[in-house]
Amino acid sequence: MGVRRAGRLVAAVAAAALLGGAVAGCAGGGGAGEGAEAGPGTVKTSPIAAELAKLPARVDGSKIVVGQPDAPHTAQVLVDPRCGYCAHFEAAGGEVLAKLAGAGKVKVEYVLASFLDQGGASGSVKAVNALRASVEQGRFAEYLAAVFASQPKGKFTDEHLLAIADRVPGLRGAAFDKAVADLAYREWVGQAEKGFEETGAQGTPLVLVDGKPAGARDGAMFDAGAFTETLKGAGVGVA
User: Fold this and answer.
1) Local structure of 65: helix, strand or coil
2) How far apart are CA 63 and CA 76, in angstroms?
3) What is the pLDDT confidence band of residue 8, given thresholds at 50, 70 and 90?
4) Which residues fall within 8 angstroms of residue 179, CB to CB, at 6 or more apart?
5) What are phi and psi of 28, to 5 degrees?
6) 199 pLDDT exceeds 90?
7) InterPro entries recorded for this chain (predicted)?
8) Exposed/middle/buried for 148, CB within 10 Å: 0-12, 13-18, 19+?
9) Is residue 236 part of a domain?
10) Per the domain annotation, does 233 fall within a domain?
């Protein structure tokens, strides 16, 4: 994301905070926010893909947990795959959390929403289904980053999700491809959306560190350096 675009995003969040504390992002009944820079069919991967490939992930009810179970801190991350603001977060704050998870300092609980599919669209549902399938292949963290980096301006399609998977070593195969084509985890996708709704969150992205919101009001979650300092203030990442 360019410096000017990042500046506009942070400014928008700060302005929203001043106007009654609202957080800039994607909300139910609204649009998907600023679209990612990837165009239709564009596939990108994370610059820290090699580190992400080493991160363990497991399903815990309606959440997907990344990192070591005994990590001293927990960061809960609420995102919708079609939310443009979530893509910006993953490219900044998401990478910070991933590195800390790799160092054993935090475990990250992903709550994958699909509320942006309201009105008959199916992009978020398809993407969350594919992300759930990637857990079975041990490639969730790397695929998650690639999905957001490759977020289309429209909806996700099976073809695009498989093209993204092509860039994640060890992910493509008969089992994964069938799970994507058949929406094999559709029931779980519904459970994940219900889990998101039960948090009471009004939109995405949202990060809770040990149960407390982090990096939203001041836009820190959209800047790696600022979010690192926010996490340090919460005791995460301090030696």
Assistant:
1) strand
2) 9
3) very low
4) 129, 130, 132, 133, 136, 185
5) -60, 135
6) yes
7) Thioredoxin-like_fold, Thioredoxin-like_sf
8) buried
9) no
10) no
26 sits in which H/E element? strand 26-27
* 229, two tokens: 């300092």
Question: What's residue 218's pLDDT?
Answer: 92
Give the structural domain span for 166.
3-228
Strand ranges inside 19-172, DSSP E: 26-27, 57-60, 63-66, 74-79, 107-112
How many domains, the chain? 1
**In sequence order, what are the beta bridge partners of 59?**
64
Structure token pair of residue 101: 């998870």
Span 33-54, pLDDT tens digits: 554 445 556 899 999 999 999 9
Q: Rounded to whole angstroms, how far apart are CA atoms 199 and 196?
A: 5
Taking the C-alpha atoms of residue 167 and residue 164, their distance in angstroms, rounded to an integer, is 6
Report if residue 239 sits inside a domain. Answer: no
Report field, pTM of the whole predicted structure over 0.85: yes
Cβ atoms of residues 141 and 171 within 8 Å = no
Q: Residues near 65 by Cβ (< 8 Å), separated by ≥ 6?
A: 57, 58, 59, 107, 108, 109, 110
pLDDT tens per residue across span 147-181 = 999 999 888 999 999 999 999 999 999 999 999 99
122/82: higher pLDDT = 82
Residue pointed to by tokens 């994940």 = 192
Instruction: Find the CATH number of the domain harbouring 157.
Output: 3.40.30.10
Q: In whole angstroms, what is the distance from residue 179 CA to residue 214 CA?
A: 34
